[in-house]
Design brief:
The structure holds two protein chains of two kinds. Chain A is built from twelve helices and no strands. Chain A has helices spanning 3-28, 33-38, 44-54, 60-72, 86-121, 126-140, 143-157, 173-207, 210-217, 222-260, 265-275, 278-306. In chain A, α5 (86-121) runs antiparallel to α6 (126-140), α7 (143-157) packs across α10 (222-260) and α10 packs parallel to α11. Chain B is an alpha+beta fold. Chain B has helices at 7-22, 55-61, 112-123, 160-165, 174-178, 231-239, 254-258, 283-286, 288-297, 300-308, 337-346, 364-378, 391-400, 417-421, 440-451, 455-472; strands spanning 35-40, 69-71, 77-79, 82-87, 93-98, 138-145, 148-153, 193-199, 203-208, 222-227, 245-246, 263-269, 273-278, 313-314, 353-360, 382-389, 406-411, 476-480, 482-488, 495-496, 503-504. In chain B, a hairpin with a 3-residue loop joins β8 (193-199) and β9. In chain B, α9 (288-297) runs antiparallel to α11, α10 (300-308) packs antiparallel against α12 (364-378) and α15 runs antiparallel to α16 (455-472). The longest helix of chain B is centred in the last third of the chain and has 18 residues, at 455-472. The radius of gyration of chain B is 25 Å and the shape is globular. The relative contact order of chain B is 0.15. Classes of the chains: A mainly alpha, B alpha+beta.
Chain lengths: 313, 510
């Protein structure tokens, strides 16, 4: 079986395990959607009536098997609180979260690659020390705090960017970028800090190798040496980590979406948890888990592209 | 890469580049004059008024649907879709005369059949309405003529009119109900606005309904409600002129907002009553002397000032001070730590008492109040172990399960006092209520209040019940907080409705 297909099939058990764990976890947590809907006005008889009407009184196993059956038909059910199909809710939000994560990654790489390479080339220079110090600071600043600072600075005090909200890429690319800029910075800078150190270390490591000396002694220009030889090798570990970090960014958007009022998966997931809306939580977790697994696959494939020595049969 | 570029320099560069690339107008620029931008802390779950019980949903739904009757600024129920109504002497038959010529958004004219279909829909188990119980006393609904509908109740139920005025009493068109229309995403009502665009968790854009039954209303052409969870962002947006109004300002932000000449702070006494609730089923708290000692031990004025804002109004009964049923009695157990210690010693807890104090996580103010209460109780030898719990946990384990000694919570307003008190006097309820209070005399009074339609009689009945609850220290009322909303100075007639906390944009102008 081709490697890609095998890996794609491996996604299925991962997703099933995640789905089951989510399902069970939400059963253990006290409170259900009926309790939360009725709130402080709840009368015991009203609660049990609503539970019955919502089908919450049926045994766990029945509901789980039902959910699995629907999942096989790519139907994630209808949300009890929102009264809408979960797939529709997810489809509305997925592009937002993917946009934020990708934009944050772009910020992270856009900062980390040039700064990391420059720092490695002048190791222990003032520039290098500044980059190291800067990345230390970047790692220490909590994302949500940076988000609020950026927001108060660049959206409220000096209104260059919109305060809240999101515009779809297909509708207005310029607005899309404007809405994404601050969240992407808030989320991307922390990753940039981590990646800068990695790029620096990897490039530094390669620069010390014999082949670099050979290439230089052949009279190749510094830029050629760097681009043709050093980066090719140095970028492999960077790619791996960057791929994994994209996964972290997907998680990080949960916080950032809350700060910037972005209608993404993270907010949906949070709302689902607050409302104890099992189907929404499962749907959102499942989507994130699937994306994470596919991302790992993509990283593996990128290896091969970056380094011809790596092949998958 | 000749000169030093730290990440921070890169940020500044990126900001400038993106701003230049996208080159849009500054985001803080004033919205067009005919668009009113309102920042609300969250969005509706669904726009189907009968499928939800969420305040956030009704805050939007109020603009899309109308009810038969509605509360005015003082909480008095006044005609809306019903022009007038009569009640039979036995309180069972309610006859409503509907307003003529009211149009639904899709063009149909309102008639008695719509009212009948709407209430039958909420009573239908398939609707799975969380608020079906409020209409449970309805026995039959008859269409007398196109503009007259007669509702017969199975038992006398004075709060019935109030139930109709709440958001879930919204009237929907019969033809669409019959077709199982999805009101949740495509609402059709008789309300002043229609939905132009709804992006979940982001915003909802409402457009004036030109066929609205009140001539000259609504005055705004468009209302853009943005869902902004971060309080700091809301305030920043108001001050920057991006929002025309925001739903709540935390009292710590008030000085900053008041200092800005372009905005106005609106102050409204809420219909909430915050309480410190003891669990009467706990051995120590079963003793009224201990509960009285707790009341003496807590400086309620101080708690209100520090946790809920200095303008909060202290209450000595379990009723908010704005309610027509509020009774003003002197504090029977004024702040007095010595008296508290004496009562505790008398009850046998002179050497100390340890209690568990559960605080609901989403309400920062209650948590702060809890910390103050903890310190105050400590001074009289009561160790309160605070425990912050998540909302779902609070509802199921604390409120429903009674797994606590003390807790702090706010009871929201109701258009009818029965809504607030029913749970504390319903003998059929097992367990009786979250504080496990059981006083047959009070239960009788609450039942009598529900069955009495004469307002003066009702006031007397409820006054007696409230006094008895205070005497028993059913719970320790803290008080009623004040809500602060913010608008641009030019905004007129922006308001939140009494007790049901929804916003009414019909008269608003900017």
């Amino acid at each position: 079986m081709p490697f890609v297909l095998r890996r794609l099939l491996a996604v299925v058990p991962t997703v099933l395990v995640v789905a089951t764990a989510t399902f069970l976890a939400l059963q253990v947590v006290p409170g259900d959607v009926a309790t939360i809907m009725l709130g402080v006005d709840a009368r015991p008889d009203e609660l049990s009536r609503l539970r019955r009407e919502l089908g919450l009184d049926r045994p766990l196993v029945v509901r789980y098997v039902e959910w699995l059956g629907r999942l096989a038909r790519v139907d994630l059910g209808t949300s009890v609180a929102y009264r809408e199909p979960v797939t529709r809710l997810l489809a509305q939000r997925l592009p937002v979260t993917v946009s934020v994560a990708m934009a944050a990654m772009a910020v992270a790489l856009g900062v980390a690659l040039p700064v990391g390479i420059a720092a490695a080339r002048r190791a222990w220079s003032a520039l290098d020390l500044a980059a190291l110090a800067g990345s230390q600071v970047g790692l220490a600043i909590p994302t949500f705090w940076l988000g609020i600072l950026l927001l108060l600075g660049f959206a409220a005090a000096w209104p260059v960017f919109p305060l809240q909200g999101y515009a779809a890429l297909a509708r207005d690319p310029a607005q899309w970028l404007r809405h994404l800029a601050l969240p992407a910075l808030a989320l991307g800078l922390e990753r940039a800090a981590a990646l800068t150190r990695l790029v620096r270390a990897a490039v530094l490591d390669e620069l010390r190798r014999d082949y670099v000396r050979t290439a230089r002694s052949k009279g190749l220009g510094e830029v050629t040496v760097l681009r043709r030889h050093v980066l090719r090798n140095a970028l492999i570990p960077v790619l791996t980590v960057a791929g994994l970090q994209l996964g972290f960014l997907l998680g990080g958007t949960i916080v950032i979406e809350q700060v910037f009022g972005l209608p993404g998966l993270g907010r949906l997931l949070l709302q689902g948890i607050y409302a104890r809306d099992l189907l929404i939580v499962q749907g959102a977790v499942l989507t994130i888990a699937t994306m994470f697994t596919l991302l790992n696959l993509a990283v593996d494939l990128l290896y091969a592209a970056a380094d011809p020595r790596i092949t998958y049969d | 890469m000749r000169r030093a570029h730290g990440p921070l320099a890169a940020v500044a560069l990126a900001v400038v580049v993106v701003a230049a690339l996208t080159g849009g107008a500054p985001a803080g620029a004033q919205a067009p004059r005919d668009r009113f931008v309102f920042a609300l802390s969250g969005g509706p779950d669904t726009l189907d008024p009968q499928a939800t019980a969420a305040t956030l949903a009704f805050q939007v739904n109020k603009s899309l649907y109308d009810t038969l009757v509605e509360p005015d600024d003082e909480g008095k129920l006044v005609p809306a879709l019903a022009e007038s109504w009569t009640v039979s002497p036995d309180g069972l038959v309610w006859t409503f005369r509907l307003r003529a010529g009211v149009k639904f958004h899709h063009g149909k004219t309102l008639d008695a059949g719509d009212v009948k279909a709407t209430f039958e829909r909420i009573l239908d188990p398939a609707t799975r309405s969380p608020k079906r119980g409020d209409f449970g006393s309805i026995r039959t609904i008859e269409v007398v003529d196109p503009l007259t509908v007669r509702i017969t109740l199975a038992e006398r139920f004075a709060p019935f009119l109030a139930a109709l005025a709440h958001g879930w009493g919204a009237i929907l068109p019969a033809d669409l109900i019959a077709r199982r229309h999805d009101f949740g995403t495509r609402p059709v009502g008789t309300g002043p606005f229609t939905v132009a665009e709804w992006q979940r968790d982001a915003f909802i854009r409402l457009q004036r309904f030109d066929g609205y039954w009140i001539k000259g209303q609504p005055r705004l052409r468009e209302v853009l409600i943005r869902f902004v969870p971060e309080s700091a962002v809301k305030v920043a947006g108001l001050l920057a002129g991006e929002f025309d109004a925001i739903d709540a300002i935390q009292f710590l932000d008030l000085p900053r907002v008041r200092a800005n000449p372009n905005v106005r702070v609106l102050r409204q006494v809420t219909s909430l009553i915050n309480v410190l609730a003891p669990n009467h089923s706990r051995p120590a708290l079963r003793d009224v002397r201990v509960r009285r000692a707790l009341w003496h031990a807590v400086d309620r004025q101080q708690v209100l000032k520090t946790a809920y804002g200095g303008e909060s109004l202290v209450s000595n009964v379990f009723m908010d001070v704005t309610s027509p049923y509020y009774v003003d009695i002197p504090d029977p157990y004024p702040y007095n730590p010595d008296q508290a210690r004496r009562l505790l010693a008398e009850a046998g807890y002179g050497s100390g008492l340890t209690l568990d104090l559960a605080l609901p996580q989403p309400y920062q103010a209650h948590i702060e109040a809890g910390q103050l209460v903890q310190a105050m109780l400590g001074r009289v030898g009561v160790v309160a172990r605070t425990r912050v719990v998540e909302w779902g946990f609070w509802l199921s384990r604390i409120y429903a399960g009674g797994e606590y000694d003390l807790t702090i919570i706010g009871h929201t307003g109701k258009l009818d006092p029965d809504g607030r008190l029913a749970g504390f006097g319903d003998p059929s309820r097992v367990p009786p209520n979250y504080v496990r209070y059981d006083n047959p005399r009070v239960a009788d009074l609450i039942l009598a209040g529900r069955l009495t339609t004469n307002p003066d009689h009702r006031k007397r009945i409820y006054a007696e019940a409230l006094k008895k609850m205070t005497e028993d220290v059913m719970l320790i009322p803290l008080g009623t907080p004040v809500l602060y909303m913010g608008t641009q100075r030019s905004v007129r007639d922006f308001r939140q409705l009494y007790a049901i906390d929804t916003f009414d944009f019909r008269k608003t102008t900017k």
